[in-house]
Write a structure and sequence with these properties.
two-stranded antiparallel sheet, 304 residues, UPF0353/GerABKA_families, 10 strands, alpha/beta, elongated, 11 helices, six-stranded mixed sheet, Rossmann fold
């Protein structure tokens, strides 16, 4: 819902200016048709209501009111409200993804055989196989974050680079998760093709930051399934990063579900050199406008 509200805008906002003459004409029409307006300044309101035919009863909705509503809805419809992008027919169908891999001594624990790091690399290889042809990049982090590969459709290169990563090659020890996520989002933004970020980590630090928007984020827990389900820190970090937490399974259900979500997560990639295309939603208002116009065909409605 937050992403929808943030993306909501009008394709032709200048048409909203039609509301100004609509309100002005509605106000003038009500003023001119109120025959008793001149008497209100000199006569008691209660007496005036008794002396006026129909003075104690007013219709809640007048023809002018419905005309105003139809006019405003028409102006809203033709202004082009939208909140959803549509893929370009010339754009690549596969959406990029940045894989962020934690490379620390804790990832060498053997409670997830053979090690947490090896299992994370196996899951990553399965994900690359399911996303065949989709651009995938790689970032390694410990106490600092480093770009290993920008998004590339060559899955074998990504897998070979991931296999070469080990804690002893990282220059600084620690847990720079926030910096790694920021680097991944920056890399995707510079590519201008949309995409998502997938973090493979066993533990996460206590985060004092909140999500600042950007590509969709997924955190894959590189832990034994029972331990991952009982770790509240993972859920807390995922909520702070506005990320979806992927719980590990002994089969490929976790990776298959993640691959399906990556195919639709975030806005579709635009074609190179082409501006984003937005799906217009103003036509949803046409049935309501037609219903308001239909009331005008009621016999005696305007002159009643």
């Amino acid at each position: 819902m937050t992403e929808t509200l943030a993306a909501f805008h009008f394709l032709r906002p200048e048409w909203l200016l039609l509301a100004v003459p609509a309100l002005a004409l509605w106000w003038l029409e009500r003023r001119e048709t109120d025959a008793a307006s001149r008497w209100r300044a000199v006569m008691d309101p209660v007496l005036l209501a008794r002396l006026t035919v129909g003075g104690d009863h007013r219709r809640r909705l007048s023809p002018g009111d419905l005309l105003l509503a139809a006019w405003l809805l028409t102006a809203l419809a033709v202004s082009g409200p939208t909140w959803r992008q549509v893929p370009s027919p010339f754009a690549q169908s596969a959406r990029p993804a940045m894989v962020v891999l934690k490379v620390t001594p804790s990832m060498l624990e053997r409670d997830l055989a053979p090690t947490r790091l090896d299992r994370a690399r196996e899951k990553m290889a399965d994900l690359l196989a399911l996303r065949e042809g989709a651009p995938t990049g790689l970032i390694a982090y410990a106490g600092s974050a480093h770009l290993v590969l920008p998004p590339t459709p060559d899955a074998s290169v990504v897998d070979s680079m991931a296999q070469a990563l080990a804690p002893d090659v990282m220059p600084v020890q620690g847990d720079a998760l926030v910096a790694a996520v920021a680097l991944a989002r920056t890399t995707l933004a510079e590519a201008g093709q949309g995409g998502s970020v997938v973090v493979f980590a066993d533990t996460v630090p206590a985060l004092n930051t909140s999500a600042d928007g950007g590509p969709p984020l997924f955190v894959f827990a590189a832990l034994p399934p029972a331990r991952a389900a009982a770790d509240p820190a993972l859920r807390t970090a995922a909520a702070a990063l506005d990320a979806a937490l992927i719980m590990p399974t002994i089969d490929n259900q976790d990776i298959e579900g993640l691959a399906r979500r990556l195919t639709t997560a975030g806005p579709p990639p635009p074609a190179p050199g082409e501006a984003p295309r937005w799906q217009e939603a103003g036509w949803w208002l046409t049935p309501l406008i037609a219903l308001l116009v239909l009331v005008w065909f009621r016999r005696g409605w305007v002159l009643a």
